[in-house]
């Protein structure tokens, strides 16, 4: 065995070396979804509770948390407007490192913060993509006006407190981001802040085009992409130029899959439960999370669906409303057959409307 001893001429030299080690350690930290303790995690899902739950007023910033180490949704000790929870810790990576020239980031939301709400873009409530040439994360969510511009630091909008919201973060190796880049063309996202250095542009050309304010050309009107998280979990990203939920049935398994759908049903053109297909698409009207935390669908702005049959175990989260007025706008879902995710959301379905 060999031992190495370093002799310091002064306490100042020792302090300088310590600071250098801290800086190097921070700069080399892998970009990742971070859990409630700030540790890297393959994926996490946050279900922010609405301010009103069955006429009982809450804070509007409390949330339930789920990741691979948790078997069901758990109430977080943090709030979504705090930088100490999983969401704040994950996004702080952007706010502390956005000036770096060795990473890519893109923020989009059809209702961006501080800007007007143009309807010509896809119905793509929020996303943050951030990665370097090693790995990164893709955070998708249903929150308007979020996240803030990188220069503003982390915060959660007051407009996002009223309704329930879902946020889904997945960590990917760099090899997955060229595929993710192609998916963005089908979403027609309202990009409001981004940075794509020249070294990355050959790999993520579509993302670079969108960042430059251009509209990428596409051949088909829909796309389905198989993605692998950094720890090997399979996710399917399905996007379409048409924001119509039943079309996704055929991509996931044809007409053999029936869906229970949670979608914001405030719009005048909301679609009723549909039994015209061999397997039905039925609207969830009540959600019940552990606690119990129960609320009605119109108190919930999140968008998700689960397969009706337990054997299929499909769960999809995204930005699709069951609303005919949004059928012409792009939209998408991230789906998986992860048993932990399926069980958590299937149990959250407390009631649905039959055809």
Task: Quickly list its features.
355 residues, alpha+beta, 9-stranded mixed β-sheet, 6 helices, 18% helix, globular, disordered N terminus, EC 3.1.22.1, signal, deoxyribonuclease II activity, hydrolase, DNase_II
Describe this structure in words.
There is one protein chain. The chain has helices at 11-27, 86-97, 177-187, 205-211, 247-252, 339-348, and strands at 33-34, 40-41, 43-48, 52-53, 56-57, 63-66, 74-75, 104-108, 127-131, 135-141, 165-173, 191-195, 222-228, 234-240, 259-262, 281-289, 293-296, 304-307, 315-318, 331-336, 349-352. The protein has 355 residues and is of the alpha+beta class. The protein has one domain. The strands form four sheets. Strands 13, 14, 15, 16, 17, 18, 19, 20 and 21 form a nine-stranded mixed sheet that branches.
How many separate helices?
6
Would you tell me the overall average pLDDT?
Answer: 84
Low-confidence segments, given as residue ranges, are 1-8, 17-27, 241-246
State the major sheet.
9 strands, mixed
| Amino- and carboxy-terminal Cα gap | 74 Å
Helix and strand pattern: HEEEEEEEHEEEEHEHEEHEEEEEEHE
Fraction of residues in H or I helices: 10-25%
Strand content: 25-35%
Q: Count the strands?
A: 21
Query: Number of domains in the coordinates?
Result: 1
The secondary-structure class comes to alpha+beta
Shape: globular
User: What Rg is obtained from the alpha carbons, in whole angstroms?
Assistant: 21 Å
């Amino acid at each position: 065995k060999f031992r190495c001893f370093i002799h310091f001429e002064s306490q100042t030299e020792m302090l300088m070396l310590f600071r250098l080690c801290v800086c190097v350690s921070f700069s080399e930290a892998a970009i990742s979804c971070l859990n409630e303790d700030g540790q890297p995690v393959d994926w996490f899902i946050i279900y922010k509770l609405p301010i009103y739950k069955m006429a009982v007023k809450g804070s509007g910033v409390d949330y339930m948390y789920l990741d691979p180490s948790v078997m069901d949704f758990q109430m977080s000790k943090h709030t979504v407007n705090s930088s100490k929870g999983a969401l704040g810790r994950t996004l702080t990576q952007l706010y502390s490192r956005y000036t770096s020239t060795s990473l890519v980031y893109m923020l989009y939301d059809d209702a961006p913060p501080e800007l007007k709400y143009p309807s010509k873009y896809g119905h793509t409530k929020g996303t943050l993509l951030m990665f370097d040439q090693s790995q990164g994360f893709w955070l998708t969510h249903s929150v308007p006006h979020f996240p803030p511009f990188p220069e503003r630091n982390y915060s959660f909008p007051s407009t996002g407190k009223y309704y329930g919201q879902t946020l889904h973060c997945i960590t990917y190796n760099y090899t997955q981001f060229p595929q993710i880049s192609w998916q963005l063309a089908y979403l027609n996202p309202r990009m409001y802040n981004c940075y794509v250095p020249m070294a990355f542009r050959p790999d993520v050309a579509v993302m670079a085009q969108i960042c430059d304010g251009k509209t990428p050309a596409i051949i088909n009107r829909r796309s389905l992409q198989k993605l692998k998280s950094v720890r090997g979990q399979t996710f399917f990203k399905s996007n379409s130029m048409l924001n119509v939920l039943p079309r996704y049935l055929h991509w996931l398994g044809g007409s053999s899959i029936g869906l229970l759908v949670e979608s914001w049903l405030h719009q005048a053109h909301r679609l009723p439960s549909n039994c015209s297909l061999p397997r039905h698409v039925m609207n969830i009207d009540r959600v019940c999370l552990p606690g119990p935390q129960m609320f009605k669908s119109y108190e919930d702005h999140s968008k998700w669906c689960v397969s009706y049959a337990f054997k299929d175990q499909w769960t999809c989260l995204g930005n699709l409303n069951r609303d005919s007025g949004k059928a012409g706008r792009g939209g998408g879902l991230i789906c998986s057959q992860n048993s932990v995710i399926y069980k958590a959301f299937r149990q959250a379905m407390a009631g649905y409307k039959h055809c």
